[in-house]
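Fold it.
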Amino acid sequence: MSRRVASAALHVAVMLSLLSAAGCHVTYGPTLGILGYPIPMSPYFQDRLEDQFHEHERYERVPILGPLTAGGPAVALDPPSDDEIMRAFEKANPMEGGLPLMHEIQRNNVRIVVEPIADYIDPPRVYPLIGPAQLHHAHYKCIIHYTEVTRVGWPIPHTTVDEDAQEVIYIDHNHLHMVGNVDGGPGSNY
C-alpha cells in the first residue's frame, strides 16, 4: 500500500510540474511576485490624474516666443479659452454636494465675457537657463454669467433657481520674448 501511495504522490508531483510549465510563462531576472499583476484603479483617481496632466501641459507653462519685430503688434494674441476659464472657475468654486436625489447643483446657460485689463512688456533682462528675454504680461477679467439650479431631496424636497448668478475670474497670461539675434549668427550676443 505504501508503494502505491508513493507512486500516486510521484504522479501528482509530475503532473503539477507539467501543468505549471505549460504556456508562454518565461521570466528572466527578478520578478515582482503578486505586485507584477495589474491592479484596478478607480476612474475618479484616473480622471483626476488626467486633469492634472492636461492643466500642466496647457496652462501652467510659460512659452518662450521669438523676438518682437519693429512695427509689429506688441499685444497678446491669446485670450483665455472657455476651457481655461471654466477650469479656473471650477477650481475656485467647486460644486458642493453631488449626492443624486439628495443635493445636486447645476450650472446652466453659461455665458462668458472676456475683458482685457492690461497688456504690457517688461524691459529686457537675463533669465537663468533662457538668456536675455522680455516678459510679456496680459491680464484678463472674465465674467461668467450662468443659471444655478439647486435641487435638495431631503428632508424637504425643494428646488431653487438663481437665474442671474455671475462670477468674476481674473486670469493672467505671461510669456517670454527672446531678445537679440536668437539664431546665433554673426552679430549674436551669445
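Residues 27 and 38 are 17 Å apart (CA to CA).
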